[in-house]
Amino acid sequence: MKYILKKTLMMLITLIVVSMLVFLAFNIIPGDPAARRLGTEATPQQLAALRKEMGLTDPLFVRYIRWATGFIHGDLGQSYSYGSVSKLLIDKIPITISMALMAFLIMVVVSIPLGIFTARHQGSVVDHVLLVVDQVVMAIPPFFSGILLTLIFGLTFRLFVPGSFVSWKTDMRGFISYLIFPAIAVALPKIAMSVKLLRGSVIEEMRKDYTRTAYSRGNTVRGVLYLHVLKNALIPVITFMGMALADMVSGSIVIEQVFSIPGLGRMLLVSINNRDYPVVQAIIMGVAILVMIVNWMVDIIYRIIDPRIESL
Amino acid sequence: MGNKSNREPILSVENLKIEFHDHASPETAVEDFDLELFPGEIVGFVGESGSGKSLSAMAIAGLLNRKSLTKSGRIMFQGKELLTCSRSVLRTFQGDEISMIFQEPNTSLNPVKKIGWQIEESLRIHHLDVSPAKRKERAVKMLADVGMYNPEKIYEMYPHELSGGMRQRVMIAAAMIGNPQILIADEPTTALDVTVQAQIVELLRKINREKGTAIIFISHDLSLVRQLCSRVLVMQKGKVVESGDTEQIFNSPKNSYTKELIAAIPVVDIANDTEYIDEFKYSEDVLKVKDLNVYYRNHKTGLFSKSNRQQILKSVSLSMKKGEILGLVGESGSGKSTLAKTIVGINKDFEGTIQKTDDYPQMIFQDPYGSLNPGRSVRWILRESLRADRKKKWTEEEIDKRMKDVLTQVELPLEYLDRMPSQLSGGQRQRVSIALSLMQRPDILIADEPVSALDVTIQAQILKLLEHLHEKLGISILFISHDLRVVYHLCDHVAIMKKGKIVEFGQTRDIYKNPQADYTKELLQSAGIVDLGI
After folding, report:
1. Quick check: A6 and B93 CB within 8 A?
2. Are A212 and A253 in the same domain?
3. DSSP labels, B219-265
């Protein structure tokens, strides 16, 4: 319990530090929000009045507190061109998160059995072939595999219609079956990496003394593998998968372009182009929060799997 | 053996041969190995590392499954041939009829599984009819039987929460829960402290007596084997060179290797020791430690963890005279190595005084495999010590001459200068380590368990070398060891440490004859040197 509390506290502190950095960064960037809103023909008096009204004349710290409390209450500020940022993002967040979670699920479901399989058949022909395939897949960036998937499954087999994204609000099945392909594209290199990692980890654990003990008790190879080795071998893989999930959220920026999905990533690119800083700021903050929550979950899962982690 | 001829052996091994095929030509690891094991006896396998004693035992336990390895011969148990039978048949015996415990209790248990789960494993595999509640009951009883005070609590714990000795007890409990006919113990006490060693041996003896389990006890420690086993197999280079009744072999060994092994055991015969130590031959102190308190600071592991300063040594005082070998004895964690490091100057966080005639005492370490840089030649390693010499600048010729002198002193041929550590045996490496420590002509040498990682016969050679160097060069040596027999032979004075304190300090012979501290008595008793009836 103390461990969870400590990790939560750690997460909150990191969150505060990150939010300060993000806020500071967007204040250093040149450009005056008041000037942007009024356009080039505003008089200095008008500008000064609006700046006062927008609170831009307050000290930095006061502005930070105002921004942060607003953020906590769901008020992410005002976009320069679209009004409320919260309203703008509320529809995009579920799309990106669903895609990242699907990619994560695909990675777990595919890579764990495959990692165990290659480790068990270490040195066989199948193992060698899979290792080469693994190496190749690892090197393909998601945007490229995304294009290939569109070509093969979209244009040739017509399993989905490229560019015809449907919202989950109108068609849940259509939503999932459209997202599954970008999710695969994002997951592929991660699958390759975690297969390789798990294979190495299982092989290493199989050499350890406790597996010899397990055999001496009369375990089958299967028993040794699933009852003894797997839990130990998963420890490094879980760290990787946590990082991969965080990476999948940020990796959506590119893949949403390829599949023309109106998610957070696409919004981010558009906002950067428009220099719509409040939106960029909110998205970056959101992604940072997500990454921290994922790390926090990994820490908790770690504690459950490995009793050696001190509950200081 | 006459009385055994009318009994049926429970296990018989004939003509066992084990070959490795890792290289172009096969290497024979075990050859012509025969054994008949009778119910309820304890047989010792004795030999040095690489003699094949562990491999033979692993073959009996059915644990040799490497593809690059071939086995031939016969291992008969309950009418089944274990060497060639399928894994599914072999499995039915493993953990149920034939159980095994290993040398390293720290790594032999699964770190992420509860103790209870691990103890019950054999029951879960072989006796599906036993209910979970009944299993737990038996596991808890088993834990109590192996001498655990809090079996219910230990049942729920993880291996890392237990000490080495307790883990070995857990291993024994897990091995014994199915009531096997044969227990194979592969160096079960080697990784443990002397007093814990004695407890584990006592536990094995109790199991043998109460349950009638036949035990195969593998060890390189001949005095332990003599205490425990009724019969011994002496192995060398994969072959059994001598076997028979323990006392017979120890009293009148026939084979030359057996003789050598037995001669390498330092005999401690306190009653008949009449050697007199002339205290006047020691005058000057080379090292004087007074009221030394040493602390160790735990590094902070996280943002919120406090860094805490722990006291490791508590008012330690001792002195070493010029030209003597001073023994420092204690178990792991007693602070021996901390004291050595503080004297050398590695630990800086201390109170008290350390006076030494040599500002830079040299050290010899325990593990000759880890303490020499594997990527450098002996020449480079030796030269390095002079580059770092703070007392004097050395010219090339001087360095060259010094290296040759030192190598001669440790009795290594000069061509070894160009060898890499990997090309040397353990004993040779330790000689290089000693040569390295001599390079700067120190007054004081600190030897931290210099022979603990070596085989018995090599141990004897290295000890002889140290003694010889000490006589010839007049170096004072602080000899750290857990082996009370070796200390008895080597050291005129000894300091006994426990939990950071020196509990006894004085003439070795006096202390061994008439120990004052309870801890000293316990140590001497555990090592089988004196029988004080405690």
Report:
1. no
2. yes
3. ES-HHHHHHH-SEEEEEETTEEEEEEEHHHHHHS--SHHHHHHHHTS
